[in-house]
Design goal:
Structural class: mainly alpha
Number of domains: 2
Strand content: 5-15%
Helix content: 55-70%
Order of helices and strands: HHEHEHEHEHHHHHHHHHH
Largest sheet: 4 strands, mixed
Shape: elongated
Strand order of the largest sheet: 2-1-3-4
Number of strands: 4
Mean pLDDT: 82
Length: 385
């Protein structure tokens, strides 16, 4: 490989990118737009759930129970009703997602030590949100029940308390959960690292899938073929500007995550950078292979979207857990490079893991990059001759 010829091809491609506003927009503008768009809009946190209440008891105990919901950041008490018809209308208009129906004998049952059943009506049209809202409601109810039980324990004698505990009527075990890595359980900290992988995949695949096809369509490829530039020098020269743009996008993503979205980078940037370059090399190589095969910018962009962008969104674990997918789809995800890079990013960002944990993913990315680059060089040589 002649470095002088490679540098000449890279300089030519740099000039084209700098003189073409569309290439700059796709290489830098579009990734940043996607980063901010998904960073602000995409969240799995369910806060301020609209709540409706029908309090038939109207007692101190029922109001205290309601306060466990209205005083929480997870619920927003919007409507107080006095019949089921109003609850139905509130849920139909999306003014309430969940409703509590407190029976008239709520206080009496609690004072007698009996179970007080509170009906919870939930809008199940959005199953994910409904499930999370039910979990919040169950947690608030469990906390209220525990406090009521503690008050009852204070009102009975020590002997009766011991007898009650021996009969298993009062709890003797307390669960104290501890969350590691993402202690505040903020979904943005989980989503943002995966978003970096998707952004870099989109940038790499779309840009490089057009660069070689553009030469064929404009008729300049024949001029390059008759020069002493070899296939390897031409391909690496073409990739160099987009590799630099990819590194710039990575630095911008890390900076935006740190200073705009407050996503902490717990691991080492010095480990994140080379592994990102490895992923970027494979993505760029795959994009240029598409460009060599298709010879058409329109067809190359369509193939790039289908083979890289969609799998990066749907099959990488970025949004949807791979473990919940059907087994045939799980098998397909093993050939999606974004899956491995998402795992690497979340491991470094959230858990500060090292190469001792990530080496299988690193090995796959390295093998994929070498395999695809070799295929691209061989395929282009066939085009020359």
């Amino acid at each position: 490989m002649n470095l002088r010829r490679l540098k000449a091809v890279a300089r030519k491609e740099f000039l084209h990118v700098l003189r073409d506003p569309r290439s700059l927009m796709m290489g830098i503008g579009m990734p940043m737009m996607l980063l901010f768009l998904f960073g602000y809009a995409l969240t799995m946190d369910v806060d301020r759930v609209p709540l409706a209440v029908w309090d038939q008891s109207q007692t101190v105990e029922s109001r205290e129970f309601i306060s466990r919901f209205s005083g929480s950041r997870y619920f927003d008490l919007r409507i107080s009703t006095d019949n089921y018809r109003q609850i139905e209308e509130a849920i139909d208009r999306r003014e309430a997602l969940i409703a509590l129906v407190i029976p008239a004998d709520f206080s009496r049952r609690l004072s007698m030590g009996e179970a007080a059943v509170v009906q919870t009506v939930v809008d199940g049209s959005d199953p994910n949100t409904a499930t999370i809202a039910l979990g919040y409601a169950e947690a608030a109810t469990a906390t209220f029940s525990r406090d009521i039980m503690l008050k009852q324990m204070q009102n009975i004698s020590l002997s009766r308390t011991a007898a009650t505990l021996s009969q298993g009527k009062l709890p003797v075990m307390e669960l104290r959960p501890r969350v590691w890595f993402n202690t505040d359980m903020v979904s943005r900290n989980f989503i943002f690292p995966g978003l970096i992988a998707v952004v870099m995949m989109i940038m790499a695949a779309i840009l490089t899938s057009l660069c070689m096809a553009r030469e064929w369509e404009t008729g300049t490829m024949e001029q390059l073929i008759v020069t002493p530039v070899t296939a390897t020098e031409l391909i690496f020269g073409k990739l160099t500007p987009y590799f630099c743009i990819g590194i710039l996008d990575l630095l911008l993503c890390v900076g935006v995550g740190e200073f705009v979205f407050d996503v902490p980078l717990r691991g080492s940037l010095w480990l994140l950078a080379p592994l990102s370059m490895l992923f970027l090399f494979g993505a760029l190589s795959f994009g240029i292979l598409i460009s060599i095969i298709t010879k058409s910018q329109l067809l190359a962009s369509q193939v790039g979207i289908v083979t890289t962008v969609l799998p990066a969104f749907l099959l990488s674990g970025f949004i949807f857990p791979i473990e919940n997918m059907p087994l045939p789809i799980q098998a397909v995800t093993h050939i999606v490079t974004a899956r491995y890079f998402v795992f690497i990013l979340r491991g470094i960002y959230l858990k500060d893991v090292g190469i001792g944990v990530l080496w299988p993913e690193v090995l796959f990315l390295a093998g994929f990059g070498v395999l695809v680059m070799t295929a691209a060089i061989k395929k282009f040589r066939k085009k020359i001759y």
